[in-house]
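ingest -> validate -> predict -> emit
validate: passed (alphabet ok, no gaps, 612 aa)
predict: started
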Amino acid sequence: MDGNNLPLLPPFVVTGPPDFSQRLQLSRRLASLPGPQLDQVIFALKPAKGNIPPASAPPANRVHALLEWAESEIGCGLEMLEQVLESVLARPEDAVIPTSQVKRVFISYRSQEPDVSLAQTFHDQLQAAGHEPFMAAESINWGENWVNRIDQELKRCDYFLLLLSERSATSDMVAGEVQTAKRLHDQLGKPVILPVRVNLPMDDPLNAELRTVLQTIQQKTWQGPEDTADLVQNCLVLINAGDAPAPAEERNKPNITPPPHQRPPLPVADLELPSGTMPLDAKFYIKREPWDTRCLQEIEHRGGLVRVKAPRQMGKSSLLARIRDRAKDLGYQTVTIDFLETDESTFTDSSQFLKRLCALVSRKLGFSPRKVTEFWDEELFGPKENCTDFFEEHILSKIDTSLFLGLDELDRLFPYEAVSKEFLTLLRSWNEKAKVDETWAKFKLAIAHSTESYVVLESNVSPFNVGLAVELPEFTPTQVMDLVGKHGLDWREADIAALMAMLGGHPYLIRLALYHVAKQDLTLAQLLQEAPTDAGIFGEHLRRHLWNLQQHPELAEAFEKVIMSENPVTLKSMLAFKLNGMGLVNLQGNDVVLRHESLYRPYFHSRLRMTP
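emit:
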């Protein structure tokens, strides 16, 4: 009998008193077995988990436990134990794997049935064959660092056995393990990835992260216990030989109709309702090149200054967070100030505002903010002079690296003209100093502000016009298609075109739409029908624009002209500048055209009540 194909035996009941002579003889023979052969005996008899100590335990303890179990009411009996022992010993000598051919196998699975039982079967059979399987529940001791051990085993393993069920296919942890295994294989030539779909049909789609790794790898399927023996045997033959599965055959079936049982395609991660700054590791973040890369490069330069501007909800804060993260990678000290957190009363007085700035930066760098009060001399110097000298003497001179200062939501300062004018002038002067002064050369700056704030300006000139200006664009059709795939939606080009006809490439609106469709809250057809109404999912966005227009009647009147015309409209330069800043129109030469035609025209046509 082939030891790799030993029968899985049902429990037996002892029918007579134990034979102590037979037990003693069995004990000696079992104790003399090499570890792999003892594992084969245990695997064939299938004692319930917990009855026999793991392979790491002393052999004498394992033999004693095996005999105790065999003679118990739930055991197989000594006669069956002896029969299995004989079959193992009857294997040819060359069937025992030399130490040099022992393979480490990482078994990736989720803690549910039938995944756990199948993983345990693989573990036991691999162990019985002389290999070293790693199965987290079996191999990690209580109190051991789980994350570190997983990482170590991935780096050590020769094979990565992936049990891919519906639940594991949506697991961030499993996706991370697969990505790590693929990266290690590309670098070191191992581990070999062996995917097994557990009750997951081959035509059931995988998310983008898994699909990119597994699409060229041959995958096996398990649909029930009747598949276990052949599946395990095939796996053992491949691992014993040190081979890899043949590459998957290319399939070209453009008109496949999904089967009725198919669940929705899988997103790359847990769906995120778009809101605020996206985390640095967000799976749904879309880079807008070349701007993302240029921003990261700019802060490496002497006097590096980045200005990120766009209407609300276009991704300014998310990009600013990534610029700051790049600054950290470069070894800079980093401070970010969000002006949404600043008390409004601070914006009314330049001295108070600049004192607060110095104190905040000091505290975030670990310096005492009390030094600001001690240093500030309002009798002899003005607020900008005090602020500049404090930065130079108590901040820049005390750090060995560059200082990255990020200012988010700077537009909150714009309505306070006296203070904003003084502060923006100060930032310009610091940027000029950084180009010629060694101390100020350490200073790097990135700011983000909404162009919707332009409605309060008295001119049609941006209030801050130095450094690298980045006006974040909307998503392109290719980027929207990428985001659709990340949400696990199997859309055609016509579906994407219909969505963009309604929303353009507005990042927030696109993500909000894809989130609700992927969550199956509504269909694409329902979304498009309800979109330009207060009842639709974009109602809050539309009402905010309506409120802003109602606060500025001259803008509302100008925008109504745009709504009522199918052609480009000529407006006063100031009005065109502000409506463009709000994200309601696009500039086209000296004229303007409506942005997001299918969304804004029907909504504002019914909501604006201006006298012609």
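Residues 1-18, 250-264 have pLDDT under 50 and may be disordered.
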